[in-house]
Amino acid sequence: MRLPAIARRFDPRRRRSKVNPDGSMPLAEHLYELRDRLLISLAVIVVTTTVGFIWYSNSLPGIPTLGDLLTRPYCDLPAESRASFTADGECKLLAIGPFDQFMLRLQVALTAGVVMASPVWLYQVWQFITPALKQKERRYGLSFVLAGSLLFVTGAVVAYFVVSEAFDFLLRVGDEVQVTALTGDRYFGFMLQLLVIFGVSFELPLLIISLNLAGVLSYARLKAWRRGILFGLFVFAALATPGQDPFSMLALALGMSILLEFAIQFARINDKRKSKRRPDWMDVDDDQAAPLDVDGDGPTASTIEAPTPIPAAQPRTGRAAGSFDEVL
Q: What's this model's pTM, rounded to 2 decimal places?
C-alpha cells in the first residue's frame, strides 16, 4: 500500500529503515513507533468522529441522518408499543438531563468514527507487528486490513437487522399492560453495545487464520477443539449480548459458528498444502534415523561408488638411502 508523499514523510517506518533495514530496533525505538502509530490512529479517529457528529443530524447525499438510521428499529414499532412525547405523535426518545443530548450525540459520533477509521488503525496495528513476521508473511498486510474492516462492518450490519427483531420481542412482550418509554442513553447504549460486540466478534476467523498462517494453530488442533470452541461461542453470546434476548444471542452465536467453520476449513486446506511441500524426514523423531530417499533426487545405493584402495608404501631408494647406510 503506497502512501501519499505527505503521509510517507510522517510514516514511522522511516525511523525503522534508518535504524536497521530488516526492521529491528531497540525497545525505545519500538515505543516511539507505537506512540507515532497511536497518534496517527487517534488523529484519523478525530476526523471521522467530526464527520459522525455532523452526520448525526444532517443527511448525506442519498443517506439519511445517523440519528434516523439508529432510531429506525425503535420507530418502526407500532405506536401503541412505545410512548409518545410530542403532540403529533412523532417518534422521539426521552432526555432527562441538560447534557444528555450533547453527550449522546458525541457518543454516537465517536462510535461511528471508530468504525469508519477501522481501515487506518487496523493498518497501523499490522505495520507495528510486521517486524516480528517473515518477509513472506508481511505480504498479507493489505488483505489483513481489508478483511478486518469488512468483517467488522459486516458484524455491525448484522447486528442492526437483529435489533429490529430484538425490539419487536422485548418491547411487545407485555404491551397489553405497559408502554415502554426509552431514554436516549439507554436506547443508544443498547444499540452501540450490540453493534460493537457483533463487529468485534466477527473478527474471530481473521484471528484464527492469522495464527494458522503463522504456524501457531494447526487444523488438527482446531478439529480436536471444535466442540469446545462452539460451546464457548454460545456461552459468550449469552453473556455478551446486552439485551439477553434469544434473537440477538442466537444471531451472534450462529454467525460466529459459521465464521469459525470457515476458518477451520481454511486451516485444513492451508495445512494440506504445506504438508505436500514438507519433506518426510521432518516428521522423524530425533532419536530415529531418517529413511533414504530412494525414489527421489537423493543418493541411492547404485550411485555410491566403491572405495578406491590406498596403494602400499614403497621403500625409499636412491642417493639419500645410500648416504644413510654409509652413516650407519
A: 0.66
Q: Residue 62 has what DSSP assignment?
A: T
- Taking alpha carbons only, the member of 196, 217, 197 closest to residue 206 is 217
Taking every pair of C-alpha atoms in the chain, what is the biggest distance, in angstroms?
Answer: 140
**pLDDT tens digits, 209-223:** 888 887 788 888 988
Query: Domain limits at 150?
Result: 5-202
Distance between CA atoms of 290 and 51, rounded to whole angstroms? 64
Q: Which residue has the cell 525497545?
A: 27
**Of 119, 216, 202, the residue nearest 157 (C-alpha):** 202
Instruction: Tell me the CA end-to-end span of the chain in Å, nearest whole number.
Output: 89
- Residue 211 neighbours by CB under 8 Å, 6+ apart: 217
Does any domain span residue 185?
yes
Asked if residue 292 belongs to a domain, the reply is no
What pLDDT band is residue 137 in, cutting at 50, 70 and 90? low
- Assigned domain for 220 exists: no
Whether 10 is covered by a domain: the verdict is yes
Rounded CA separation 251/253 (Å): 6
What is the tally of structural domains in the chain?
1
Measured in degrees and rounded to the nearest 5, phi and psi for residue 183 equal: -85, 160
How far apart (Å, rounded) are the C-alpha atoms in residues 291 and 327?
Answer: 61
User: Helices marked H in the chain — which ranges?
Assistant: 5-9, 13-19, 27-55, 66-75, 100-116, 118-129, 141-170, 184-201, 204-213, 219-240, 246-276, 319-327
Q: Are 178 and 80 in contact (CB under 8 A)?
A: no
- For the CA atoms of the chain, what is the radius of gyration? 33
C-alpha grid cell, residue 266: 481454511
Q: Which position has the grid cell 465464521?
A: 259
Q: Determine the residue type at 218.
A: S
